[in-house]
Design a protein that fits this description.
This protein has 242 residues and is α/β, with parallel strands linked by helices. Helix content is 36%, strand content 13%.
Length: 242
Amino acid sequence: MVMPQGKERGGIMPAAYAARDFDAGPKTYSDQGFMDMIYRATGLADFQGQAVVLDLMSGPAKVSLGLKERSPHHRYIALDASEGQLLKIPDGIETLRADVRDLSGVPQADVAVVRYGLKDIPADQQAGVLDEIYKALKPGGVLAVIEMASPDGMKARTNKQHSLKQELGIFPRDVATEGRCNIPTEDGLFDLIENAGFQVQSREDYVSQVATTDWVKGRQIGEAQRAQMDALLASEPMYFKQ
């Protein structure tokens, strides 16, 4: 489903998501070691011929740009629901404004990548999104999922913290229309992926150090909201903080 021009749409991300500054946010978005891990997961280094690569929920296409630096001859398509984010993408990356919940009409891909996007989709829609990605891939295609995972026994606390950050944001998430985020446990994430028909072939862990000040720099929350987040985190038990 290609979306009409000139109008932001909620349901996956807040309508004002276009104003978010990924360059100034957490270092995860610019860390070269993290990008190397994503590149390994795609298998593009060993791909014969030109691959069609879908960068799903791409934002300003940092993933596409990082992959293109490493393998420039492939075809990269950044797909996002936000026209404002797509307009930030430099020449050399194709752009497509579409809703990840309906990928009909999207070019069939050899590789699809979704980084930190699945968690922002409500729990009751995540399986459907993975089904859509499965259908958008050619037979034998590769899906690289780069996602946060809630530690065992801490899913409720992790989601409470992440949801509050979104709802307190400079451009708050409208829970009534967009739902709440869902950061699954690691086992839950693998279950979702496998239930969509994928076979998990490899996995890597990455530890990201993020401070609430990073969210301010990236225009996710303001200083007043950061104080509320700090108060919530300070009130949590030590095992959760660690």
